[in-house]
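Just wondering, can you check both lines?
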Amino acid sequence: MSPKSEAPSIQEQQHLSVDGHAREERPSKLPRNLSASTLKKLSKFSVAAATATSSVKFVPAQVPRKRRLQTLAVATWSVMIVITSCTWIFLWSIPPLWPFLTIYLVWALFIDRAPERGGRATGWMRHARFWRYFADYYPASCEAELPPDRPYVFGYHPHGAGALATFGTEATGFSKAFPGLKPHLLTLTTNFQMPFYRDILLAMGICSVSKKSCSSILKSGPGNAITIVVGGAAESLSARPGTADLTLRKRLGFIKLAIQYGADLVPVFSFGENDIYQQMPNEKGTTVYALQRKFQAIFGFTLPLFHGRGLLNYNFGLMPYRRRIIAVVGKPIHVKQHDKPDLEEVMEVQQRYIAELTRIWDTYKDEFAKTRVRELRFVD
């Protein structure tokens, strides 16, 4: 007798079709139950996400329209280089515009000398409502008495955005505070090699910080004034809330320039300027500091690793915090005109300049720098 065939098992029956024929086995579904380790990982991820979300302070829905416009103005100016660059690239995608763009580029780079000859400031640009919102975001203000019967060299400290609001626009009422003066905020020459962006700067009266530009403005006659952010990129690396470390001791060029043209030196200290951003640790000797100084040596400027707030939150992003900035304009320091001042003469004027900056700090620190963590320091 042939052996009796065994009945298929339950598992085998699941693999037979209705008519008893074998069918292709399908992969089983994933288990519905998660392992303990997987649940633990998901739990940690959820907690981290919840913590990050709870730590971000979002902007409430009910914010006055004026404050929103102030934030928008600051955000727009913060990315103005990006906006103008993208516009320039986009226009090159339209072939009929190529001849006009080429002519403009040649004119801007090789013909136009406005950045070195006092710019071409226009009243409507300096008085635009946009700048009023920009200045009110902080807000900024100034005070002093300066007769328009001589040229001036303003030294702005510390490095920051307040210089633009005070000297690059009429948002803080510069012309009303100093009638008869023609301000020229100075910036890097490379900024005037950027299409469209350069024209915005020139319309604001902003010029190149080159020696030729400074000379052209100062010899134009009484009432002309230049503003130099003396500390420059190096000073921005030491900018932290509650501090006032000024890069000044080795900066003698602007003093020599003032003596050569018989221009009064006017120190300007901007309280609150270092409070609008947080910067990651980059003390001297660290790798971050070395890389930033190397970048500065190559490109002429540096990039502080900072953070501030965002458009829709108060503690995460690249926009500056809304902090009060007060630009205090000091008493003018009279200098005797000399074509070739020696080092001793320059150092003597520098000591008077530092003394006036110190006077400004000591006079107003308890009013405008209540949260300071240390006193004013002069470095490098």
Q: What stands out?
A: The longest strand covers residues 264-271. The chain has one domain: 65-277+320-378. Residues 1-32, 47-53 have pLDDT under 50 and may be disordered.
